[in-house]
Design a protein that fits this description.
Largest sheet: 7 strands, mixed
Number of helices: 6
Oligomer: single chain
CATH topology: Rossmann fold
Radius of gyration: 16 Å
Mean pLDDT: 94
CATH architecture: 3-Layer(aba) Sandwich
Length: about 190
């Protein structure tokens, strides 16, 4: 994070693949006085991602990346990030795995939010697995991205109780509410010394 010091507004890119509720939350937060970052570009691996509507609504530049060739895709992303002087990347439901080569270029400057209490339940279908194992608690984690899937250093976590009546949908909904709170807190935490 050393490179970012001394800047008031950290140029940030948000990567999405889906509905974009975390993106919307981050955009709204970026417009408040407490925010130390501004979202310059939204990158999507899916041309039909609903989250792109938020980029349109808030007049944020967006780029849709075709992932048929991963090297070409990442080169296009890096070019866009460079053009926008991006200093920080927030993954928000981005369903592609970044290569270690890409991660190295932004070492310590890529954040992700994951809907479980890492290191438990990395990867997909988190809520189904939590319920199947009769876990008493679940939650969400904001962490730095490294070359291991959902394996980077944890910044913040939020724990919530799993109820007997929960199903994957109800649990996902409750955790998503917490994700919205936690991502903002995590950004404030890492950017607080600027």
């Amino acid at each position: 994070m050393e490179k970012l010091i001394g800047t008031k507004n950290i140029n940030t890119a948000v990567f999405i693949s889906g509905t974009g509720s975390n993106l919307k939350n981050l955009i709204e937060f970026s417009k408040t006085k407490r925010s130390k970052f501004q979202i310059k570009i939204v990158i999507s691996s899916n041309s039909k991602a609903k989250g792109l509507n938020f980029a349109n609504r808030f007049k944020i530049q967006k780029k849709i990346i075709n992932y048929n060739n991963i090297n070409r895709a990442e080169n296009q992303i890096l070019k866009s990030l460079s053009e926008n002087k991006i200093q920080l990347i927030c993954l928000a439901g981005f369903m592609k795995i970044l290569t270690s080569k890409f991660i190295k270029k932004f070492k310590g400057r890529i954040l992700n939010i994951h809907p479980s209490l890492l290191p438990k339940y990395k990867g997909l279908n988190t809520h189904q697995r939590v319920l199947k194992n009769n876990e008493k608690f679940s939650g969400c984690t904001v962490h730095y991205v490294n070359a291991k899937l959902d394996g980077g250093k944890i910044i913040l976590q939020k724990k919530i109780k799993v109820y007997k009546k929960d199903n994957p949908k109800s649990l996902a909904k409750r955790i998503l509410k917490q994700e919205h709170i936690l991502y903002k807190k995590a950004l404030n935490k890492i950017l607080s010394n600027f």
